[in-house]
Structure to design on (117 residues):
């Protein structure tokens, strides 16, 4: 089965051997179409995340990286040499520009910008 293993490594969804039933063929095609739909949705989400990230200033990116890492505003302010109030303003701006409502959503969206493995 070396051909099957190579096909799967190269991105094949399934490897069918002849003779194949119509039901098995249809199921494999449906699975492949579902994967394509999921991949294109992920690509669109990644594009949106990249567009949102492009609107952030350098300082907002620095604050966002620390927010995503779980640091408190007080610690972020001390690390960056700015006031805690300024950090809070940056946080508000980041949430608005990234079009998220929660820190969890920001973490997910920021993670979309990471290279795919």
């Amino acid at each position: 089965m070396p051909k099957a293993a190579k096909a799967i490594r190269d991105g094949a969804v399934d490897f069918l051997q002849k003779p194949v039933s119509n039901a098995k063929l249809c199921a494999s095609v449906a699975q492949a179409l579902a994967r394509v739909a999921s991949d294109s949705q992920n690509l669109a989400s990644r594009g949106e995340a990249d567009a949102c990230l492009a609107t952030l200033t350098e300082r907002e990116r620095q604050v966002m990286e620390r927010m995503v890492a779980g640091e408190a505003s007080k610690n972020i302010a001390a690390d960056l040499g700015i006031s805690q109030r300024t950090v809070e303003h940056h946080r508000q701006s980041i949430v608005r520009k990234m079009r998220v409502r929660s820190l969890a959503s920001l973490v997910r969206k920021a993670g979309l910008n990471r290279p795919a493995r």
